[in-house]
Amino acid sequence: MTTLKEKFQTAFGAAPTHVFSAPGRTELGGNHTDHQRGCVLAAAVDLDTRAAVKLNGTSVIRLLSEGYPLCEVELNDLTIRPEEQNTTAALIRGVAAGFVNRGFVVGGFDAYVTSTVLPGSGLSSSAAFEVMLGTAMNHLFSCGLDAVAIAQIAQYAENVYFGKPCGLMDQMASSVGGCVAIDFADHAAPVVTPVDFDFSACGHALCIIDSGASHADLTDEYAAIPAELSAVCGLFGKAVLRDVPENDFYARLPEVRKAAGDRAVLRAIHVYEENRRVAAEVEALRRGDFPAFLETVNLSGFSSQNLLQNVIPAGATAHQEVALALGLARHLLGGRGACRVHGGGFAGTIQAFVPDDMLSEFRAGMEAVLGAGSCHVLSIRPTGGTVVSAD
User: Fold this and answer.
1) pTM metric for this prediction
2) What is the pLDDT of residues 260-270, one digit of tens each?
């Protein structure tokens, strides 16, 4: 089997000097709370994006992702290019700009990239790619940034250059690694707290199930969530829900309904309650009470489906893949374990904690409906963005 370094050699005619890796992530709690400066519980997983890299002595980054054309980005021009939105070039240019904006000098390099974090898997392949790039630039050019700063640069690239209004959770979980609770109250300096819990000994498997629905054409659905919450916050003269006291929100509920609409109200209720669920999940894991953790995971799942409403795209009837996957998972679990929508929602994946003694039956039942290979059994990766090897 051809190694990553050998693939680099074939593509660029020289041996790489470094290999960098950044993991995908799974969201354990805090569905759509990060962009409201709320709280999340997330973990890195044992799927990653890797790059073999070598400085090329030019001002051009040349990146070849396996199965895709060569992408070249000239570092002498890091201005935002609208025509590059939703492209690899936008992410490369955006990450480089993030370092330059902080006063660092970055140069050209060649990179050959492979990934086991499949696009659309709900495990944030984009964040893994961005964090891998940030980790590489941080190391190659001796910038000395910590994992939090790399995550912030990665989010900047995705928001400003790529054009996707994501929060910071995905990049933070990928960059930091392990299981972490993140409080985004101070967006410039989020509080990242490791949560020490041995998921491998909890008697349950962590499963990510692909619903079969594509994220394509769903940008408006994702953008509507922060937009509607912004309409709620605007009534109080605030930018994010974290700054709107919950008591004030309920006291002025008739005005909020009129100004923002009922769906926005329900989504705000979800965010308030989801932040409390994150705290409950963290506390349950710290005291080793896994049943209490599972109960809260289920509550999060029902809240996302019924209040946040990020399971079924607006107007969809014939195709409700995520809702179907959740209904099937709950049926197969029979009151045991837990399941919830995973990540952004509307498409992609769901998450399930499945008792070890019923894993085979659960997996077979899900794949009988959703297709072979749709149920992935993962484990938590202790490290985030890292240098795998260096000559």
Assistant:
1) 0.86
2) 999 999 999 99
